[in-house]
Amino acid sequence: MPGSNEQIADLAKALGHPARIRIVRLLMATPGCIGGDIVNAVGLAQSTVSEHLRILKAAGIISGEISGPKVCYALTPDALAPLAAFIAALTPPTGTGCCLPVAEERS
Amino acid sequence: MPGSNEQIADLAKALGHPARIRIVRLLMATPGCIGGDIVNAVGLAQSTVSEHLRILKAAGIISGEISGPKVCYALTPDALAPLAAFIAALTPPTGTGCCLPVAEERS
DNA sequence: TTCGTTTATCGTCGATAGACGATAGAACAA
DNA sequence: TTGTTCTATCGTCTATCGACGATAAACGAA
């Protein structure tokens, strides 16, 4: 079992908002740290962006490290492994040419 | 660009509930059609289950085909391709040679 | 036709999410 | 010390979610 239903649902819910997808994309495209630039990029109030960052951090998708006056945010991709495994399990015939159709164990 | 932020967020939001993860798992484990058995399996009221099915269907994750008196539900895995691509794009580093469907510890 | 079965929709309720402005806290510069 | 900058939290509001029971709609059987 790649993960519990609640664990997967929590990860999916954390990604279930366009602003948070945008934030993740920004972090993906930014090699190093990124701080208040996120606020300008997403076009929302600073408090709203901070709330989205808190949700992503609570889900373990990102990590925030205090670096001087600002905070260094970075992705924590491993946190999405249960969700990725779940989605991969139900998309065997995709053109990814990736995984063999491994038989599921009974649950 | 695998998909728009809203498209990915909608897919993630549709998966952002434990009951819907459970429904998808049931459909995954059931080769053929499945109808009212879902209600018994998830342990919620029939109207609630119908609502979850409606959400999953609206997101394109499942499809319902009328088959006599009941409805045949089946997965539509291709709908999750944008979300799968998004998650895969931000997990290039460890563990993903490509295959390895489960990143669980092996001992 | 009527009856039974299965699914979808409606109405309502409480809980949660999402947005904002305002404020508080932390770290550096001068 | 003061001042500036950046981030987190608080309070409040509206909108949406999730659950339920009740009801309607569609279909097959009798």
Concise overview:
Two copies of one chain form a homodimer. Chain A contains five helices and two strands; from the N terminus they run H-H-H-H-E-E-H.
How many β-strand stretches of chain A? 2
Strand neighbour order, sheet with most strands of chain A = 1-2
Largest sheet of chain A: 2 strands, antiparallel
What fold name goes in the CATH topology slot of chain A? Arc Repressor Mutant, subunit A
CATH 2nd-level architecture of chain A: Orthogonal Bundle
Q: Topology, please?
A:
The structure is a homodimer of 107-residue chains.
Chain A: H1 5-14, H2 18-29, H3 37-42, H4 46-58, E1 62-67, E2 70-75, H5 81-89
Antiparallel strand pairs in A: 1-2
Chain A binds a DNA duplex (30 and 30 nucleotides) through helix 4.
Please tell me about this protein's structure.
2 copies of one chain form a homodimer. The first copy, chain A, has helices at residues 5-14, 18-29, 37-42, 46-58, 81-89, and strands spanning 62-67, 70-75. Chain A is mostly helical and 107 residues long. Chain A has a single domain, classed as Winged helix-like DNA-binding domain superfamily/Winged helix DNA-binding domain (Arc Repressor Mutant, subunit A). The first copy, chain A, has a two-stranded antiparallel ribbon. The first copy, chain A, is elongated and about 45 Å long. The termini of chain A are close together. Chain A binds chain B through residues 2, 5-6, 8-10, 12-22, 24-25, 28, 75, 77-78, 80-81, 83-94, 96, 98-100, 102, 104, 107, and chain B through 5-6, 8-10, 12-22, 24-25, 28-29, 75, 77-78, 80-81, 83-84, 86-91, 93-95, 98-104. Chain A binds a DNA duplex (30 and 30 nucleotides) through residues 17, 19, 35-36, 44-48, 50-55, 64, 66, 68-71.
